[in-house]
Fold each of these.
Amino acid sequence: MTLLPTNRPRRRRRTGAIRQLVREHELAPSDLIQPLFVVHGSRLEREIGSMPDVFQLSVDESLDREADRVRSLGIQAVLLFGVPASKDETGSENYAENGIVQQALRRLRSRHPDLLLISDLCCCEYTSHGHCGVVRNGSVDNDATLEILARAAVSHAAAGADIIAPSGMMDGMVATIRAALDGAGYADQAILSYAVKYASAFYGPFREAAQSAPAFGDRRQYQMDPANVREAVLEAALDEAEGADLLMVKPALAYLDVVRAVRERTQLPLLAYNVSGEYSMVKAAARQGWIDEGRVVIEALTGMRRAGADAIITYHAKAAAAMLAQQAGQ
Ligand code: PBG
């Protein structure tokens, strides 16, 4: 005779109502942050070849329309990346009064007062060599780069950024930026540190989008070794001690254990960055008809929330928010 089970977990999965009742983690549009790429020029919506449905936008009606779409879907925050008109050794457009990110921040600030504006503070989009700082003797000089980051942070804050997000993995960047912001009267502007950022091949498509591939070498002297997790906990603790308001782990999908490890050791809000390569792989497979794009996206983003991310930066933000709204209406 078969022994019948007493415990039947399937009872809790029988209907949609009960599945929803016992659901442990939720994903909402307000958990999502949409990255935006801004470029010089007018009336541009230039699709990025390796990132279908992601566009470089000019700072005019093109950007306004995108911000309207983002807001109407219930997404509250955008992360801005600037593609400069010209690049130089120090990446000077990053701290130029009329740089492209500064223009975008001012426009969004005045037209969308309640949209949360996060600006990426890296140098690599702006430098002629494509590295994340000042290059001396063939490698990025940490301390010389800090001076540039301080200047750029103040410039972004002055243009209207709510949150400054340094992504260059320079030692001491959070403390330097905090001091610079406070000294310039921007004590209320927060710092979202890319505290844990790996030297990842998953950034490939982004480098086309932001035109930021390094001209020589790679970023392994400043970004982390993908084999390390204790080091991630250490990086997060250092940035917390330096005054970071929010922390980030990047990339997300191959690093969910890192999200969990950092989550368990800090009380700060933690974000995960679902990066360009993760996005492009889903888009490519979906275009082949090999996966159900919508379901895969919601599953992956839910996994990031389950791993411990409070919010997620993702190129899927708009599509995911639209899907969530549709699900809620069902
Ligand atoms: C700037 C920066 C990068 C990304 C975000 N900020 C590229 C890099 O470090 O090479 C990658 C984002 C993505 O792949 O979506 N340093």
Amino acid sequence: MRRPAIPLEIPDSRPNLPESVKTFGILMTTAQKETMGFQSEAKQLLHLMIHSLYSNKEIFLRELVSNANDAIDKRRFAALSDATLLEEGVELGINIDVDEEANTITVTDNGIGMTRDEAVSHLGTIAKSGTAQFLDSLTGDQKKDAQLIGQFGVGFYSSFIVADEVTVESRSATAGADEGVRWRSAGEAEFDVETITRDEIGTSVTLHLKSDEAEFASGWRLRSIVKKYADHVAVPVRMLEQATEEGAEPDYDVVNTAKALWTRSRNDVSEDEYKEFYKLVSHDFADPLIWSHNRVEGKLEYTSLLYIPAKAPFDLYHRESPRGLKLYVQRVFIMDEAEQFLPLYLRFVRGVVDSSDLSLNVSREILQKDPTIDSMRSALTKRVLDMIEKLASDEEQYQAFWDEFGQVLKEGPAEDFGNREKIAGLLRFATTISEGAVQNQSLAGYVGRMKPEQDKIYYVAAENYHTAANSPHLEIFRKKGIEVLLLHDRIDEWLVSHLAEFDGKAFQDVARGELDLGDLEDSDDKAEQEKVEETYKGLVEKIRELLSDSVSDVRMTHRLTDSPACLVVSEDDMGMQMRRVLESAGQAVPESKRIFELNPGHPLVQKLNDEPDMDRFNDLAMVLYDQSMLAEGSQLDEPANYVSRLNKLLLELSA
Ligand code: ADP
Ligand code: MG
């Protein structure tokens, strides 16, 4: 949910900046004041923020403190490779000042700071991928949108929930005292920037409160909010002393615990502290679903604190969107979004990992090659899977998790072969016994309900739940009371092909190959089938001829009870649903013909068998073929022909 970490050397670190703004940036190396427009997405977000987050006003402070904390982390990190960026003796921290008279709050940090160009780019645009789609997805319903914005991460703009003017003054650690910047906006369409002189490196953000938000301009009130939101921030947050002796100048005192939360022992951290810390690292509004805090000692030494959010972030499916953990090495922040510590299918996990073994100048490139990372990755993966298993012990809670992240977890078996079985145990599907489309049946549950003679896990795959649930291929299974998985997520067929089996039982597509119910069929069934084949030999021959361009074979089947006909793929062909997914992704899929199967028990098939008129025979056979395409959700090649044939037959009916 966060922006990619900002590069510290900055010739042009503004990837998504509109050309016009870039040009402005160059003009503005003069001290003169410029007025600029917010990027249109930023404008939209600002507007929403102001209008839909009323019940969550206090969070502006968490966001400002979080930004200050990030900036301090970045300065400390930058100083690892360039000591001049942090002189000895400088104590890094955050000050919060309140001016009741002026009705302002100021949050000051001595972190990395911003140049004029950076202020324009970072505070005037939103560089998150998928922002435009996200904004399009908003409903206009303020309550719902407030929730969505929480998942998007509100950040700096949340200041405008309580402020009618925000002033940011900053000086980058790489800039001189006369290269400071003042950025100011009333939260409407525009902001001003000008170059200023600033003695201290770092940033101060001043909120001028709206007249009806004056309650926040109280030292007492603010202290309690700081305590609530910033206690576990690892740097000191200071405020002026409340009560001082007569005539004495008030001094700053540290309001928070200022100890990195993950370094504390589990027993010393309260639920609320864990929850607040989650909000700080994830930028989420809502409480997390579950977390796991562990210290590993031995060959490798590290601490991890991993969280599973309650809601999926808006950009979960953007491949390029940031993911991963915050990496610290011996408490020193190293990077955001260290993605090497967890597999892609667990990209929804948030949290921190603090290693004692890695070097302080570790880079992404090094992380990719370091073998110690591999063993940390597999241990952390296991922790997350254990956490999910724990969630699964409460059905209702697990359903909430599954609805948010199930689709992503389904990527697991393909990506993480070693944990295939563990993941398979966590999967949930709709089946012929579920009510509606809800995916709530486990494979273990399915296997437990299998018939004594059953040795396969049967499934049908379709574009959507309704088509799957009404597939003609299910008819014989319904008749025999055999449960079938109804796969209707795009990824499902692919998933099943990677699972291959569960608990020693192979997966079997009910729309593939000759119907083979194994021991579920008795010898009477088989004798009956042979008789049927004999009786309808002539019919099958005729239809084979008629459809020779469209299908690879025609045969009688006993898999149908209600439908007259259906199509099946042959044993080694790609499943239909997989084919559709690949085709819609623009991939070339090899041409393959299917097998047309007819139900001997259906009156239309008998009618066809008795039809002496060749024209009518052809029309009826073609209609049955087209219907079997329609029933599985496929498109007809020539829908108009279907309609005219059907109408011809209908007219004959009434004649
Ligand atoms: P996020 O923190 O998720 O990146 P924000 O909207 O909170 O998003 O902040 C936007 C950007 O503005 C930050 O990424 C950072 O580059 C910059 N910024 C905000 N506050 C500060 C600060 N106190 N010091 C330095 N840079 C800051
Ligand atoms: Mg932020």
